[in-house]
Amino acid sequence: MRILIIEDEISLNKTITEGLNEFNYQTDVAENLKDGEYYISIRNYDLVLADWMLPDGSGIEIINQVKSRSPRTAVVVISAKDDAQSEVEALRAGADDFLAKPFDFSVLVARIEARLRFGGTNLIEIEDLIINPDEEKITYKGQEIELKGKPFEVLTHLARHRDQIVSKEQLLDAIWEEPELVTPNVIEVAINQIRQKMDKPLNIATIETVRRRGYRFCYPKGV
C-alpha cells in the first residue's frame, strides 16, 4: 500500500512517515501543495493524507485532483481546525475522513486502515486480463500469472495509464523509491520479464515499445 503525506510541519511529517513505514506502508512525502500535486500526477496512491493549511494553498484543493484520477483513492484531511464546521466542510469537499490535530498516532493508523478497507479493490479488469495491485496478482482467463516485484508494478502502472505513452523517466519516478540511484535499463529488464513470463506463454501482447518515447499498454489491441 502506498500513501502520500502532504504536511509542511517537518517534525510531524517525519513522525508520520517513520510510523507508517514501520507498518509496512510505502510513503512519499510533500511539504507543500505544489509538490503534492506533482506526486499525484506521476504515481498511484491507495491513500492521500493532506494537511488543510499548507504554505502555498489548502489541502482541500487537492481532493478533486485525487478523485478525478483515481476515485477509489482515499483522502484523509488533517487540520489544526478542530471545530465541527471544518470537518463538515472537508467531508463535503470530498474527503473520506477528517482528523483534528493533535492526534494520537494509533488513532491515525486505525483511521487509515479503516479507510483502506472501505475503499475496496483497485482491480484493473481489461477483458480476460485481471490485475489485482492489492494482492500483487494477475489472472488471464482464470489462469494465475507469476509476475512479482518491479515488473508487476511496471505492468500495473502502464495498465492504469493505458493508451498513454509513458517514458522511462516517468516509470522510474513512479515506481522506484530512489530513481536517481538506478539506471533506465532496469525498465528494459522489467519489460522483458513481462514479455517472457506473461506475454509469450499466453500468446498476447501487453506492452508496446514506442521508439524514443517510452512504452504504452496495448492489450487487447496488441493481440
Automatic annotation (TrEMBL):
Residues 2-116 form the Response regulatory domain. The modification 4-aspartylphosphate is found at D51. InterPro entries: CheY-like_superfamily, OmpR/PhoB-type_DNA-bd, Sig_transdc_resp-reg_receiver, WalR-like, WH-like_DNA-bd_sf. Residues 121-219 form the OmpR/PhoB-type domain. Residues 121-219 bind DNA. Keywords: DNA-binding, Phosphoprotein, Transcription, Transcription regulation, Two-component regulatory system. SUPFAM superfamilies: CheY-like (SSF52172). It comes from the Bacteria. PANTHER family: REGULATOR OF RPOS. This is Homeostatic response regulator transcription factor HsrA. It comes from Helicobacter turcicus. The lineage of its organism: Bacteria, Pseudomonadati, Campylobacterota, Epsilonproteobacteria, Campylobacterales.
